[in-house]
Amino acid sequence: MIQLWLSQQRVALRMGEKTSLEVRITNAGSTPVEGRWAVHGFEPDWIDLPPKPFLLNPGEKRTVHLAIAIPSNRKIRPGDYEGSIEIHPIDLDGRLAESPCTIQILPTIDYQVNFSVSRLEVEQTGRFYLQLRNTGNDRVELQLGLDEEPLYFTAEFEESHTVLEPGQSRSVYLELVAQESALLGTRREDRLSVTVSLLGGLRSTQTFELEVVQKAALHGGRLRKVITRSLALLLLLIIGASAFKLLRPKPAELLRFEANPQEITAGDEVRLSWGVKNGKNLFIHPDIGPVKEIGQITLHPIVDTEYRIVQGQGEQETPLGSLFVDVTPPPPHIARFTVQPDTVQAGTPAILEWLVASADQLQIQPEVGEVPPQGSRSVLPAQSTEYELIASGEGGETRQTTSITVLPATSWTTLTATPGDIVQGESITLNWEAVGAKEVHVSAPAFESRRLSPAGSFQDRPTETRTYTFIAYPITEAGEVLTNQVQVVVSPPKPVEPIGTTPPDRSTTEPSEGTPPQPQVTQDPVTPVQPPKPATVTIANPFPGQIFVNTQPQEIIRGLEPYSFPLNPGASSIQLKGQWLDWEATLQLTPGEHREVRIQPRLLLPKGWALIPGGEFIMGTSRGEFDEGPERRITLPPYLLYKTTISNAEYEAVFPEHQRLRDSISPGDHHPVVQVSWAEAAEFCMRMSKKEGLPPAIDTTGNWMDVTSPGWRLPSEAEWECAARGGLIQMAFPWSDLPPGKDGVARCNHGSGNGLSRVADGFYGTAPVETFPPNAYGLYQMSGNVWEWCFDWYDTDTYLHEFTRFPLGARTGKSKVIRGGAFDYSYTDCTVFHRDWAQPEKTFNNTGFRPARSLPRELVRWLTTPRNELASNQPTAAGAGPR
């Protein structure tokens, strides 16, 4: 049963305002529940719901902050809107939980006043025209008037009181009549203060200053007036006819309206170009808006679109031409298709997991059948199987496979003791074979545990009847552990006869007469020599790897649970070596001693990479720009970040053709590579992953990144800021809160602002990538030098979303986030929290990139386990490191 609680049942706000609603859900039942968020009774764009479904375990509680925003739409009238916040089951109808909610839309009182002109010249009469428009969502009542009467005119409004409904417009004129005619050669100027007052509960007044000028008319008799007016009229007719002929608008002529290409796949680029002769007030629909007579624009339509070029708007609109761009939907994109684990033993299930975009129908073969675009399914193959995901859509078909290896189930084929009955002091040979086992343990009373290969033999000399217990551990963690036993019966040794004597005649009990009695010879029983009792070592916090004892390979450890193994007494050199961690020590043990050790291994980092411990950190600031806050606590797993931005030499080792494109502002081999677009940076990461045999972790579309893959990729914005801070809390720069240079030390390469470089730091353009001291994590130039591409799409409201574990920003956008500042930007743009953006298809002479990598899941588990520490003061997880 899901319980749903809202922090408030009633939310009040106006058009264009935003607020947040805290929602808490609790699983009060006894089984896990999968659900998705939904609303009822509200417009879809009013409440920003989490897009992904969730899994809530029994007793688990979760808090989510829903962003509520009312768009600026005057059709939304004030009042109470009733609805509910709901939890729905995945792929099923119905509700798991709901809570009523009321959104109160408050009145927005707003209006506009526009005058046709602010200055008017008249002889006797004239008019000012006012355009009144209600731009709010509630009725407005307006009163028109004058602050004081003009000196030379009488003024009267056509309508001094008016009421406007939302969106309604009305035109009203103010008529002016001269009180008398002006004399020849004189001009009378008058100023008017027009007031527009809002009546009702929210009273307010706007004042507009207007100017009116009275021109003089001719005087001197009736005839003179008639002649003058007639000549003036004739002259006006002549001038008007000439002007009409010269100035009459010529009709617009469409010279060119083209789209190249006209058939594309969704998201591809289309270049729209046009040319119009005598074109004024031109528009292109849809979505482009006003344009000049000649121009071009690059578009990325995702559906079939008809583009129209017109002259004028509304009723005055005149069509000039149109064209159609045929958009083919993209083929389905399989973002993830995996099976975990990829190796099982017969009878053990595995989990298929997938995520597909742009698909109408999905099938997994064999046996699974149709599936939704995202999900997981348990499978139980009887043999090694290759599963194929077939995704179909309007854009075509995409296929991807994943394989699972099925090993035999664990079973005993051989377990013997030869011989099975012995006399004390004799030896036996134990033989065993366990199919489907990774190792075998053998134990017996007073016999220390031993770990052995799945098949083999060894000799023992038991001193008493003994039962040997063999335990076969499966290859996979989910396999079955099997136990078997064999018993060896040990008899006591026979008595030893004296050497050189004849056994007495046991047929009689009395010696013969005259025969002296024979002396009795006895021999002490033989005591077997016992080997020294072995010692035992337990590693309390192991990692996956192989144990070496005195350089000889021994057992393989596959998990993180405490691990025990026997050792001979005395001094032994022990090493545990894994892919990422390495530990060695020399132990001096006594017979029968059991010693537990907690290891502190060294981290085997690839060249050029630094470990970022992750954990919880405070992202953003309360003292920056509008898109840099509010502060929020973010939790990240440990990960790797390249110590420097990629240099020219490193980039050109993958793309040699870039050498001829080097920018003069960053010329050297060890200077950062610039003039690289976001997609080119992602392509570099993809090629490095392929070169090192790693699965891809990013693609060039900008919409997919796999944070579970160990491949090269670009860092998320949260990863970048966490690394830049170097473990410092709420500091502005990677070294402290002190701006660079304020203590006389040039700590980064920054500019003076306005695109100007600052040579006081020693560089006019970029600096070599390792020029200034690194931060506490060993990262160079996280402030200044060049901007660095991040994976995230830029969104001004990113920090308002309640994602606290590995956030990846907006799901789509037009610009990608860049971080860190540059050599030609002020130091205020080089803070660890400053955000900027750039179009991903463009290149810049002040922008480069720094790759990131995710760590394997077992290594992350080890690093984030409490009390686990690395050697040599290497940073660990869970917030460790300098503060």
Q: What global shape is seen?
A: elongated
CATH top level of the largest domain?
A: Alpha Beta
Give me the CATH fold name of the largest domain.
paralog of FGE (formylglycine-generating enzyme)
> What is the CA–CA distance across the termini?
43 Å
Helix content: under 10%
Major sheet: arrangement of strands: 2-9-8-4-6
State the total count of DSSP E strands. Answer: 62
| Sheet having the most strands | 5 strands, mixed
Query: Measured on Cα atoms, how large is the radius of gyration?
Result: 43 Å
Number of alpha- plus pi-helical segments: 5
CATH H-level superfamily title of the largest domain: paralog of FGE (formylglycine-generating enzyme)
List low-confidence stretches: 875-883
By secondary-structure content and strand pairing, the structural class works out as: mainly beta
Keywords:
62 strands, Immunoglobulin-like, 5 helices, 7% helix, 883 residues, 5-stranded mixed β-sheet, 6 domains, mainly beta
